[in-house]
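User: Round two. Same drill as before: sequence, then structure, for each protein.

Assistant: Same drill it is. First protein:
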Amino acid sequence: MTHRVAVVGTLNMDLVVRVQRRPDIGETVIGQSLTERPGGKGANQALAAAGRAPASLIGVVGDDDTGRRMLDAQRAGGVDVRHVAVTGEVSGRAIIEVDDSGDNRIVVVSGANSLLTPQMVIGALDDVDPAVVMTQLESPERVTAAVAEWCGRRDRRLVLNPSPVAPLRSEVIAASNPLVVNEIEAAYYADASSGDVDADAEAVARELCATAKSVVITLGADGVVAADGAQVSRVTVDRTPVADTTGAGDHFAGILAAALAGGADLHDAAADAARAATAYLAARQGS
């Protein structure tokens, strides 16, 4: 085993539309710009992790120009893509609306990502033998279950970012160390119907620790809360003007996984990742 991070997840080409405000149902608005850039939660997290630790990405792209561009972007960022399969299906896409406040709304079309199988993932993980495995919920549910099972069998650390939010088997949540969630996801898994996680994020984190080994809740400009069986900590962050929040959560998660793989404890890793995500947002503001 090395200090390697393996990210199991998606690669999507992001089509980013800038709008003054996002349209209501049935409404048409005029877009300000359209850009295309490699993305996908798995790809974003792998690139972030690769800046701090050896990182591998496990996923699927199509045998098309989009797939080749996404693989080139990963290689340029230092990510090992030996276990990204290439298939005849069209590569995944994400359509992202970003308004003037920096908020976004995203629609993902899975494409080739949907062809990732448990067998492919288990074989890749056996070969890579990482210290930490990170995954999300953009891949098929059976893939998430296979990742959790592999981590339990091999005594490896699972960092689970359950996004987009969806029901999870109790054994998958139980294997998470940590479960990395934003306010919406934290409310869902804690069954906090009010959704007011900010009001008492520490209490929500403690509640989630009853089902997961540890928990990290990201609160945007209000910082980060980390909890394990021994401690709950809160990290404050510098407020920065935001042009586009897309990818900031993935950057946080990738840095967190790399720090944990390097031996940092949960609370130090969360603080490190929070600083990195703030710097990432500041850099996007200036770009």
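Second protein:
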Amino acid sequence: MPVNAPIVVAVDGSEQASNAVRWGARAAVRANRPLHIVSAVAPPAAAFTLAAVSVAQSAATAGRAFAETAVELAKGLAEDTADGVTVTGEVIEGKPALALRDISSRAHNLVVGKRGLGGVSGLLLGSVSTHVAAHAECPVVVVSDTLPTSGPVVVGVDGSPTSTDAIAQAFAQAAILNATLVAVHSYGGFSSAAFYDAGEKVLRQLHDEAEETLGAQLAGYGEDYPDVIVEHVITADAPSTRIAELSAQAQLVVMGSRGRGGFRGLLLGSTSQAVLHVADCPVMVVQGS
């Protein structure tokens, strides 16, 4: 990855993509990085008759023209949003999910809308966003309808390798945003009946052990980020539930792509998916190093 790799924003003409541009432009200025805006155009469909070839070529031409317009409008929006941003743009050819996955190898962050123009009505998370959040080679920020400019950064902590990488990203984001960092750790994982049958002493022990585990996971970052205030949230609820609640007052949630409880072979875990669907603020998904 280049030393000054850009923040890349994918656009498709949707309003959520416009919000992705706004988030990416501000982030690029904060991080002193260039902003690169891309729009992906699928290659022409295979055709076997002259008439079909003509239709396919016309559709491809129209699709490219639309993408070029979307990129130019997004560049203007970025310049209007963040003074001093250095912005470039291009149209890339390929299926959007695969094209964005490829460009992520050369990006500092990849920013996408939660659901674009091609999304199915009623779905909260689009297929392209899901794919790049799981497969990208850089942290992916998924942006929806709201762009809060105040509130803490929330990070989920479960002791997994991707969680460790998420913690590092969360501290860096909290420092650059001058925000409090709220670290969430769950000691759930047993049935509701078992939870209510447990005595107060057992629950206190579980809570204390979780607090100790969380403290160990966060140890050392204070030296690198001495100005970041850290709050601990220990919960017996499913982590996605508590993180989603906290997202209502947060300006960013940071999650590992797959946690300790994730199934081998699944690149985007259930907690990350749940948070992406319902969070009220942008969500950064961090893939393990």
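Residues 118-125, 190-194, 260-267 have pLDDT under 50 and may be disordered.

User: Perfect.
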